[in-house]
From TrEMBL:
<dbReference type="Pfam" id="PF00266">
    <property type="entry name" value="Aminotran_5"/>
</dbReference>
<dbReference type="GO" id="GO:0006564">
    <property type="term" value="P:L-serine biosynthetic process"/>
</dbReference>
<dbReference type="GO" id="GO:0005737">
    <property type="term" value="C:cytoplasm"/>
</dbReference>
<keyword id="KW-0718">Serine biosynthesis</keyword>
<feature type="binding site">
    <location>
        <position position="102"/>
    </location>
    <ligand>
        <name>pyridoxal 5'-phosphate</name>
    </ligand>
</feature>
<keyword id="KW-0028">Amino-acid biosynthesis</keyword>
<keyword id="KW-0963">Cytoplasm</keyword>
<dbReference type="InterPro" id="IPR015422">
    <property type="entry name" value="PyrdxlP-dep_Trfase_small"/>
</dbReference>
<dbReference type="InterPro" id="IPR000192">
    <property type="entry name" value="Aminotrans_V_dom"/>
</dbReference>
<feature type="domain" description="Aminotransferase class V">
    <location>
        <begin position="5"/>
        <end position="349"/>
    </location>
</feature>
<comment type="pathway">
    <text>Amino-acid biosynthesis; L-serine biosynthesis; L-serine from 3-phospho-D-glycerate: step 2/3.</text>
</comment>
<dbReference type="InterPro" id="IPR015424">
    <property type="entry name" value="PyrdxlP-dep_Trfase"/>
</dbReference>
<feature type="binding site">
    <location>
        <position position="195"/>
    </location>
    <ligand>
        <name>pyridoxal 5'-phosphate</name>
    </ligand>
</feature>
<comment type="function">
    <text>Catalyzes the reversible conversion of 3-phosphohydroxypyruvate to phosphoserine and of 3-hydroxy-2-oxo-4-phosphonooxybutanoate to phosphohydroxythreonine.</text>
</comment>
<feature type="modified residue" description="N6-(pyridoxal phosphate)lysine">
    <location>
        <position position="196"/>
    </location>
</feature>
<dbReference type="InterPro" id="IPR022278">
    <property type="entry name" value="Pser_aminoTfrase"/>
</dbReference>
<feature type="binding site">
    <location>
        <begin position="237"/>
        <end position="238"/>
    </location>
    <ligand>
        <name>pyridoxal 5'-phosphate</name>
    </ligand>
</feature>
Length: 361
């Protein structure tokens, strides 16, 4: 069996060590005589797994004690609604920076439930940059200020966080969580779908400052209330048990095999620089994002010729480099190089691109 180099934007590659460990433990987890998938979430064995997952996440991300960690379902997309339902309860307004499709979706969902205010947008240049922000345009009474930290489709990321003063900063970190250290104390809420850097789809992680878990808007369903999950250790109902177990294995890999998030950042920078340096020197391939805002995780690029793009994607797939086609709304190519993509994978892709350029010049 040979594994492909998978550049999917998510779900995406998992570390091979994690998959092997999960395979080893598939039929009999730790002498329990069952798979983690078959276990009651109320069992002692399972409680130890979720507790360890939370404690590793707290350790690896250096999460302060005044934050709650919630293991939820419904994807990052459900957070687009849970945030206004639970947080937009004082002034009923929230500020948004529109930096791509996911930020726009969070904004539109909020509009259904609260007053959503657009502070800035990079739509004028197809979201190829992060707008400069002027704090005097922020709503001082907003209940929260929302950003999408890494824009999966367009390949941009924030280099500086907006100064929102006392207004809680809320960030969608679906496509950058665990890719580098992040100062959790600067945020009111961080949330992420797990299917890029944390584990399989089906798990959504929410890290929320405890004082923000108040009472939701009247009529908010129980399952969409942060308080429900916080008061029940993410076990009000059945949590995504297997996804949490894989997340635990991924966190063990980050801590023990990689050596933590500083090391992960260095590794991710080496990987991204390999590809960006090539894009900057190539006469055929060009990156599409303003250099200052380049993502470490998602790298879009084009040849400028749609037929050549299609030929590249097809030949790359045949050579074992899969899922390089750009998002349907952007075209061209995109290489998502999340934590689990090995350095050799990026090097091999760059070699393949050089070869393609030489043959098609
Ligand atoms: N936000 C970002 C930044 C994403 O990349 C994605 C998924 N690609 C989402 C939100 C939506 O996540 P989900 O599919 O988990 O709802």
């Amino acid at each position: 069996m040979s594994r492909v180099m998978n550049f999917s934007a998510g779900p995406s590659m998992l570390p091979e060590a994690v998959l092997k460990k999960a395979a080893d433990e598939m039929l009999d987890y730790n002498g329990s005589g069952q798979s983690v998938m078959e276990m009651s979430h109320r069992s002692k064995t399972y409680q130890a797994i979720i507790d360890e997952c939370e404690s590793l996440l707290r350790e690896v991300m250096n999460i302060p004690d005044n934050y709650e960690v919630l293991f939820l379902q419904g994807g990052a997309s459900t957070q687009f609604a849970m945030l206004p339902l639970n947080l937009a309860t004082k002034s009923g307004s929230a500020d948004f920076v529109l930096t791509g499709q996911w930020a726009k979706k969070a904004f539109s969902e909020c509009k259904k439930l609260a007053n959503a205010h657009e502070v800035a947008s990079s739509a004028d240049k197809t979201f190829t940059y992060i707008p400069e922000l002027d704090p005097s345009t922020f709503d001082k009474n907003a209940d929260y200020f929302h950003i999408c930290m890494n824009n999966t489709i367009y390949g941009t990321k924030y280099v500086e966080l907006p100064d929102t003063g006392d207004v809680p900063l809320v960030a969608d970190v679906s496509s950058c969580i665990l890719s580098e250290p992040i100062d959790v104390s600067k945020f009111g809420v961080l949330y992420a779908g797990a299917q890029k850097n944390m584990g399989p789809a089906g798990l959504t992680v929410v890290i929320i400052r405890k004082d923000l878990i108040g009472e939701p808007k009247e009529g908010t369903p129980t399952m969409l209330t942060y308080k429900t999950h916080a008061e029940n250790g993410s076990m009000y109902n059945t949590p995504p048990t297997y996804a949490i177990y894989i997340c635990k294995l991924v966190l063990e890999w980050i801590k023990n095999d990689i050596g933590g998030l500083e090391k992960m950042k260095e590794r991710n920078e080496r990987k991204a620089n390999m590809l960006y340096d090539f894009l900057d020197s190539s006469k055929m391939f060009k990156g599409t994002v303003e250099k200052k805002y380049r993502s470490l995780m998602n790298i879009p690029f084009v040849t400028g010729n749609e037929e050549l793009d299609a030929k590249f994607v097809k030949e790359a797939a045949a050579a074992g480099f899969v899922n390089l086609k750009g998002h349907r709304t952007v075209g061209g190519m995109r290489a998502s190089i999340y934590n689990a993509m090995p350095e050799e994978g990026v090097k091999a892709l760059v070699d393949f691109m050089k070869d393609f350029e030489a043959k098609n010049a």
